[in-house]
Amino acid sequence: FVVVSVGGLVVLGRHTLSQVLVALGLGAADWTAWYRLFNQGRLDVETLQATLLAQAAADLPATGPIVVGVDATQLPRSSRRFPGCGYTVQGRTPKWRRGIHLAQRFVGVSLLLPRSAAGDSRAVPLRWALLRTAKTTTMGDEPERTEVQGAQALVRWTRRHLDVAGRAAQPLLVLGDGAYSTAGMLRGMPERTLLFARCAKNRALFALPSYRVAGRGRQPRYGERGPTPTDTLHTATGWRRVAFLVRGRPVTVTVAVTGPWLVKPAPFHPLLLVVVKGVDRGRGPTRRQRDPQFFLTSVVMTSEDEWTLPVPLPDLVAWAWQRWEVEVMHRELKSSFGVGELQAFSVRGAATTVAWAVWLYALLVVTGYRTWGYAPPPGPDRGAWWRPRRWSVGRVLHAVRAELERLVAGPPRAGASR
Prior knowledge:
10-stranded mixed sheet, alpha+beta, two-stranded antiparallel ribbon, about 425 residues
């Protein structure tokens, strides 16, 4: 396992298992034992993921919320018979003419490392879950589940292992897009877990019930319907300016918080609406434009009929901007790290190869953070006129490969030419 993991870091080109063996100098040997490593369940993926979470949690502050992001992604496939594969929307086609392709759909939970003073963070993928429907190919005993059901299972897994790691007193803040601001997601959240997710601009919101019905019968669970998130943009009061840094650049937004509100059918999960005004100023090449953003967040009841945000508003909005690190992670996993390229000839192998590649990427990110923080590595840079402000996964790979080369070749000998 250690040997093949090293090969996964030094391989160039496509990240297939055969190319990994060629990079290790084992291309002429028998390959069957290496394929059995994945196809016969010799890797304890659960232990790998739990250990990684415990190690990454050691770098988090002892107070404040632990922030994770949930999001879905696709791995394109070429065969309809591939386990867990089905037709889904092709994300690279234009919105006005959607296409389809064969792919596996996954939902993953990613830990966001501590935000630096300059507004930097990194996403560490912890665990992925396959999403299946009745029309996708079967994949062993993987059940059919929706994106929300998969996200709920991953959040519960994260909360349980954080408790084991001694982080039971810290709340878990879950960041998500509009797919997770649903009543089903709210009802399935574990204890000591907060949600901060985008919502639609026309989302139906209801006030808390303000009266009781006399006599017998069920009491009302919802009050009158409130304004939509878009209507909040036209109010003149309740706005405040929030400033923070994102990847070294100052960002100032205008924010309003209203509520508490309820969404149907989740009457026992009050929420606050956070509205971020858009930006449209300048003309031509200097024009800056950003659409307004709407978020629903869990609330904390401080006293009777008094509700407050679980996290200070500047921190909450700053973490919402950091959710982009999850998208960056997905791009690096599929474009430069080769997730989904390893061959798999069984149901177990198809699941294990993806989990192993995601775990290897996460291990690389944690190693880079513990070694350099967020700053670029010391030493000369390839560009004479430009220096990156933080390291990339490619730079970490270069450093790991250089270190492995020094370990194999040994110290340079006197008079030897390189």
